[in-house]
Amino acid sequence: MSTSRKEFIRNSFLLAGAAGFNIPSPSELSEKRFPNAEGDRLVLLGTQGGPFIRSYTQTPSANLIVYKDIPFVIDTGYGTTFKLKEAGINLSTLKYIFITHLHSDHYLDLGPLLYNAWIAGLTEPINVYAPAGIRPLLNAYWESNRFDIDTRIKDEGRPDIRNLVIAYEITEGIQVAHPDFEISAIKNIHPPIDASYAFKFKLGKKIIVFSGDTAYHPALATFASGADYLIHEVMYSPAVDEIAKRRPNATKLIASIKSHHTSAEDVGRIAKAANVKTLILNHFVPPDDKSLNNQIWIDAVRSTFTGTIIVGKDLQQFNF
Ligand SMILES: [Zn+2]
Ligand SMILES: [Zn+2]
Fold first, then answer.
1. pLDDT tens digits, residue range 159-204?
2. Taking ligand 1, which is a single-atom ion, which protein residues have CB atoms under 5 Å away?
3. Domain spanning 28-319 has what CATH number?
4. Which positions fall inside the Metallo-beta-lactamase domain (predicted)?
């Protein structure tokens, strides 16, 4: 073997070792998480803001509630399918998926998730609640996979997934009214997207609210009044301003970011006005500023909210 080849192999091992030291592998995460995968729970699956993929440890938006053994998925950013497996969910048991808005960091894994639920043995319908546009999005996905789907139906005797996925275009109000739970939506503020929603889950006596992506929206405080958990997106404004120094032509980007995200201080104002029991921060903006540690986020929100603040991490679980 040549010296350069030996060096290449040695360096590859060093790199692999370094990566393994810092980032828990998916199997390590599974071992830690699976024993807890029981009871009524909220699991943060993906807490990163925006669609850019950086690492498996923080992936785009996705959340899971399990209530009375029924899994509810809220947003399906890239990586959701694997994160659900890490959280101990049998994909063939999925029944309810809610999408806050049609930005790819909130839905990119929807098609693959539905497909994998089908491959896992899905027999009951999955209900997908999403803004207008969801039907053409799903139809295009089925069309792009038509050859495989038709082949497996014929060859493996599977039911037709296109009949098992039922898409509902949401408007404000109650989406699901069930004797055990009620799920409702209000519009949030996400220019230029009009059809963008916050969701409220009433699960027995517990209330869990997801802000979706939104600018400061005082109506959300009324919607989330008394919530046990408010999962709110968050922006650290000084770090967004820093983008202008790194990228001089970023004026348009910064204006766009600020038009549909909420500063940490305003997130605290919403949590205070709503008198929520626990505020969970997620969808961190900007997502790529390594100087933003937990304490910086907490201090910024603490200036306006004195209650419990959690800086959300992927696969973090809250039993309720
Ligand atoms: Zn987003
Ligand atoms: Zn968005």
1. 999 999 999 999 999 999 999 999 999 999 999 999 999 999 999 9
2. 105, 213
3. 3.60.15.10
4. 59-260
Query: Are 185 and 199 within 8 A, CB to CB?
Result: yes
Tokens of 241: 């301003």
| Cα 75 to ligand 1 centre (Å) | 10
Query: Which alpha helices (DSSP H) does 23-96 contain, by range?
Result: 26-33, 80-86
pLDDT digits (tens, 9 = 90+) for 259-273: 999 999 999 999 999
Return the amino acid letter for 222. T
Q: Could you tell me the distance, in angstroms and rounded to a whole number, from the CA of residue 15 to the centre of ligand 2?
A: 35
Phi and psi at residue 40, in whole multiples of 5°?
-70, 130
- Tokens of residue 61, six digits: 């938006």
Chain position carrying tokens 């994160």: 83
- The full DSSP string for 267-281 is HHHHHHHHT-SEEEE
Rg of the Cα trace of the chain? 21
